[in-house]
DNA sequence: TAATTTGAGGACCGATCGGTCTATATATCA
DNA sequence: TGATATATAGACCGATCGGTCCTCAAATTA
């Protein structure tokens, strides 16, 4: 047995800023303006780092962007795991899930948009690293929605002839479409009404 | 009565390129890369114009972009006016409309994306001229889809409890969501299947 | 203390950005 | 012919881009 490769203590001055917090602030900057329109001074202001520290910690703008995108995706997936948890009723879970999207895609929240959708449109066609992440996110969402719909189906809560897997694809398209239309800041009540109307077409 | 203000003939050398064709080529350039990532050399290459001619004809990059966006929107609205014409059966029209979106959002077409959705995500939050156009397009689409659904309803072709106006909003979100998910180049057959499945929830 | 590493701040780099302008040729009208 | 307007080509502009480097102070380990 080899000796435990104890993490060697770093010898110099320890890093004094929170890397995850910096990623989060960078995420917010990219979220507000998109990748190309976010310049280095924007990122320095958002993270409160110097150029040197930022480049030492993250390498370059593109790498930092991928970290920010990963953070955004992880947050969204974690939220779905709570909302659509198997420990909750599947229909209640789907209602919560949709209500969350309604909230995030109406009024001022809607106008702010979605980092993932903006990134998909701006970069996914040209950047394979981005494309992988975007495609992975859609798969993750679809899997969780399909799982909830399957549970609803076995519980007899779905209307006849509703296939959980194709209904899940429909709901994914719908909520991503909400993000697009949400850029025009629709009223929360009308978005909520159509989300309800759609879900009602699927349940018994 | 005053004299007819006859359009004065221009006195110098007449313009020798087709302005509309130039707008179309610029539109294709913006469509491929988005607003910020499309640089002036890209536009000069696409339009085959010199810097001088382009600036004389269009003013600046932003103005040219608005012309290109207007062209894109006009094309899309004209297509919907044909597909959803009152002279055709409303359900057939909606099927044609959806099939067109399926075609444009799957495979390589899907990967190319949509100038309007990309613009909505990239600029609508910051650029009021863009925002007006994006919001206007969604309204135009919704109106045409709602009209078709209304005609279907009076013809008894809609399922019970389907409200044409909220179903129209749902379909608008769905097709714009298709454009987003389409960036990952899904198979045409699966997109067609879910479009059919959704429409089937609304018709009798 | 000496060595090491990070910190902030900013000078500096080549490249590119959107946009203006000049020179010269060409095509129209009066 | 002379005036006018457009054409191309490219020089040129200041500003900004992403990224590197340097200086000096501070914080840690050896």
Written description of the protein model:
2 copies of one chain form a homodimer. With 204 residues, chain A is an all-alpha fold. Helix content of chain A is 71%, strand content 0%. Chain A has a domain at 66-202: Orthogonal Bundle (Tetracycline Repressor, domain 2), CATH 1.10.357.10. In chain A, α1 packs across α4 (61-83), α5 (90-104) packs antiparallel against α8 and α5 (90-104) packs antiparallel against α10 (188-202). The first copy, chain A, is elongated. Residues 1-5 of chain A have low confidence and may be disordered. The structure holds a DNA duplex (30 and 30 nucleotides).
Strand content of chain A: under 5%
CATH topology of the domain at 66-202 in chain A: Tetracycline Repressor, domain 2
> What is the H level of CATH, i.e. the homologous superfamily of the domain at 66-202 in chain A?
Tetracycline Repressor, domain 2
- State the oligomer: homodimer
Radius of gyration of chain A: 20 Å
Biggest sheet of chain A: strands, sense, closure?
Answer: none
Brief rundown of the structure:
With 204 residues, chain A is an all-alpha fold. The first copy, chain A, has 10 helices and no strands.
Main attributes?
0% strand, DNA-binding, 204 residues, mainly alpha, disordered N terminus, Tetracycline Repressor, domain 2, homodimer
């Amino acid at each position: 047995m080899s000796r435990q490769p104890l993490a060697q203590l770093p010898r110099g001055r320890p890093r004094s800023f929170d890397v995850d917090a910096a990623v989060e602030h960078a995420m917010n900057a990219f979220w507000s303006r998109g990748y190309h329109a976010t310049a280095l001074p924007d990122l320095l202001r958002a993270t409160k780092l110097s150029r040197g520290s930022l480049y030492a910690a993250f390498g370059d703008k593109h790498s930092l962007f991928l970290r920010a995108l990963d953070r955004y995706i992880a947050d969204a997936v974690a939220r779905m795991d709570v909302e659509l948890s198997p420990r909750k009723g599947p229909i209640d879970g789907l209602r919560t899930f949709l209500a969350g999207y309604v909230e995030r895609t109406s009024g001022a929240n809607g106008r702010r948009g979605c980092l993932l959708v903006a990134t998909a449109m701006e970069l996914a066609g040209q950047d394979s690293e981005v494309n992988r992440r975007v495609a992975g996110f859609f798969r993750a969402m679809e899997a969780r929605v399909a799982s909830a719909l399957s549970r609803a189906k076995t519980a007899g809560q779905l209307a006849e002839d509703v296939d959980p897997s194709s209904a899940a694809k429909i709901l994914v398209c719908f909520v991503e479409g909400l993000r697009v239309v949400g850029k025009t800041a629709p009223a929360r009540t009308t978005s909520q009404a159509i989300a309800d109307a759609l879900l009602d077409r699927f349940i018994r």
